[in-house]
Amino acid sequence: MTPNRIPQAVRTQAAEQGGAPYTTPEGEACLIIPTPAGDRVFVNSCPHRRLPLDRRGRLQFSGEQRLLVCPNHGAKFEPESGRCVAGPCFGKHLQRVPDLEA
Ligand code: FES
Questions:
Q1: What is the CA radius of gyration of the chain?
Q2: Which residue CA neighbors atom 3 of ligand 1 most closely?
Q3: pLDDT single digits (tens) 59-96
């Protein structure tokens, strides 16, 4: 496995669940979120307190926009941009990992 490839099984899980966490062989904790603009990959770290955005391997989404919800203090993020649109880190962004999006 090359370090810049996400296994198909993880992409399938993300497609079925709306998103999934993934840890690279190098140990970087990420999230993969399918969007109409293509898969987005972010570092699995909330800009508020740098806590993980999954809970027991699952991501939580809210509303028709399917905003990603931080399980710690409820910040909400746009899946395509990673921008926080509500909560304690309003206006900050999740860190994208574009190398893993292809
Ligand atoms: S750690 Fe995500 S909102 Fe606080």
A1: 12
A2: 73
A3: 999 988 899 999 999 999 999 999 999 999 999 999 99
Point out the ligand 1 atom lying closest to the alpha carbon of residue 46.
2
- Report how far ligand 1's centroid is from the alpha carbon of 49 (Å): 5
Q: Classify residue 12 as exposed, middle or buried by CB count within 10 Å of its CB (0-12, 13-18, 19+).
A: exposed
**Between vectors from CA 62 to CA 76 and to CA 46, what angle results, nearest 5°?**
30
| Nearest Cα residue to atom 1 of ligand 1 | 49
Expressed in angstroms and rounded, the spacing between residue 37 Cα and the centre of ligand 1 is: 26
- Domains of the chain and CATH, by start: 8-96 (2.102.10.10)
